[in-house]
Write a structure and sequence with these properties.
Blueprint: H1 3-19, E1 28-30, H2 37-50, E2 54-57, H3 60-71, H4 74-77, H5 84-89, E3 95-96
Helix pairs in contact: 1-2
Length: 114
């Protein structure tokens, strides 16, 4: 969940896929809630080159545990929390969930507007 762990995961994916390039495995990064700029750039690269590196994050954490959650990361790091706009700007496809029962919002399939 932390930024160093996310860096470690994306760097590991990048090294393995460089050594043995395989496309379409769709590797993901679970709890990619507070990535570094390096991780965001690497995710974008992995998606373009290998169809891998998809962040999965829990946006309801901001709503349900908001200030307490953000406060655990400190003022500087909390500015990178749940970076949906950064993912969008970099063309990164992401997945999301509620991490129920951490939040009271159970997962819903296809719950978007119709």
């Amino acid at each position: 969940m932390g930024d160093r762990a996310i860096d470690w995961v994306v760097d590991t994916y990048a090294q393995i896929l460089k050594d043995k390039p395989v496309k379409g495995l769709r590797h993901s990064i679970i709890h990619a809630n507070i990535p570094t700029e390096h991780a965001i750039e690497t995710m974008a690269l992995l998606q373009r080159q290998y169809d891998a590196g998809y962040p999965e994050l829990q946006a309801p954490f901001i709503w349900w545990i908001g200030d307490t959650y953000a406060g655990n990361f400190g003022p500087e790091r909390s500015q990178r929390l749940i970076p949906l706009r950064a993912y969008l700007d970099k063309g990164i496809i992401w997945g999301g969930g509620s991490d129920y029962p951490v939040t009271p919002l159970p997962a819903r399939y296809g719950s978007g507007p119709r």
